[in-house]
Design brief:
Residues 14-98 form the KilA-N DNA-binding domain. InterPro entries: KilA-N_DNA-bd_domain. The chain has 173 residues and is α+β, with helices and mostly antiparallel strands. The protein has helices at 9-13, 27-34, 38-47, 62-71, 89-98, 102-162; strands spanning 16-19, 22-26, 57-59, 85-88. The protein has a 4-stranded antiparallel sheet. α2 crosses α3 and α5 (89-98) packs antiparallel against α6 (102-162). The termini are far apart.
Length: 173
């Protein structure tokens, strides 16, 4: 493992896409990371298709593929004849049981670590959003309370202005 060059987190995380409300990696990117041909990766998957249910892997639609290509400035896919497959986190994990090389195993370990970090970042972001919403609600309540105080002050000042002079009771000098 010391001799192998570990893939950078940035390289892997840049290959994680959000499609159909899921974090996925595309077969072309995975084959590049595993240092094998996409054709070979897909052959192994097809030989073990029972290991890849729909929630582990799915094929992109033409529209999804076009949207994905438009998000990437330079497409490394060129003229593919078939629509690519997208692997969810579980699908990528299952690839480790299908691809037996040491490179594939090490790459899978790194990918799983990145998926975990991405999930944690999303959770942290969600917690932050919840905190911000709570602060906003408090501020809205403060605004309402301040408006209420000012309306009471306005009422009191109007009463003071419209007040008739009171007749004094008591001893006169």
């Amino acid at each position: 493992m010391e001799n192998e060059i570990l893939l950078s987190e940035e390289l892997i995380s840049n290959k994680i896409y959000f499609i159909r409300n899921q974090k996925v990696m595309i077969d072309v990117d995975l084959s590049e990371l595993y240092n094998i041909e996409t054709k070979r990766l897909n052959e192994q998957v097809k030989r073990n298709l029972s290991r890849f249910p729909d929630d582990f892997m799915f094929q992109l639609t033409e529209n999804e593929f076009q949207n994905l290509k438009s998000q990437i400035a330079t497409s490394s896919w060129g003229g593919t004849r078939k629509l690519p497959y997208a692997f969810t986190e579980h699908g990528v994990l299952m690839l480790s049981s299908v691809l037996k090389s040491d490179k594939a195993i090490q790459t899978n370990i790194q990918i799983m670590r990145i998926f975990t970090k991405v999930r944690q970042m999303l959770l942290d972001t969600t917690d932050l959003k919840i905190d911000i919403l709570q602060i906003q609600k408090k501020l809205e309540n403060h605004d309402k309370n301040i408006e209420l105080v000012f309306s009471y002050l306005d009422e009191l000042s109007e009463k003071k202005e419209n007040e008739k002079p009171r007749t004094k009771i008591g001893y006169k000098k």
